[in-house]
């Protein structure tokens, strides 16, 4: 299988996609990213909304209906889930190589 031209993903993009497996607005995404990374990755608001804009253009996330009209809620799309799985498999492969070298 040919690797997508979008890989490798940045750490931030990977974590945002993971965070959006369940719908969330910007602040929730920022919290989930920090939680998923054990506090190692913190996203500033400007970075967050730039990432959302880019992911929307790629059609990897979409806006979904929300009961709170003040906040836009986003969720990963099938295309986003596909690229997330492809990147996860790539990372697993890299880890397997390192494991085989006893690193």
Task: Produce a short descriptive summary.
By secondary structure, this protein is mainly alpha-helical. It has a single domain, classed as Winged helix-like DNA-binding domain superfamily/Winged helix DNA-binding domain (Arc Repressor Mutant, subunit A, Orthogonal Bundle). The protein contains four helices and two strands.
- N-to-C series of helices and strands: HHHEEH
Which segments are poorly predicted (pLDDT under 50) over 5 or more consecutive residues? none
Give the integer mean of the pLDDT values: 94
Which of globular, elongated, flat, extended, rod-shaped describes the shape? globular
Query: Which superfamily, in CATH terms, is the homologous superfamily?
Result: Winged helix-like DNA-binding domain superfamily/Winged helix DNA-binding domain
Which percent bin holds the helix content? 40-55%
Query: CATH first level: which class?
Result: Mainly Alpha
CATH architecture classification name: Orthogonal Bundle
Describe this structure in words.
The protein is globular. The longest helix is centred in the C-terminal third of the chain and has 23 residues, at 78-100. The protein is mainly alpha-helical. The protein contains four helices and two strands, in the order H-H-H-E-E-H. The mean pLDDT is 94. It has one domain: Winged helix-like DNA-binding domain superfamily/Winged helix DNA-binding domain (Arc Repressor Mutant, subunit A), CATH 1.10.10.
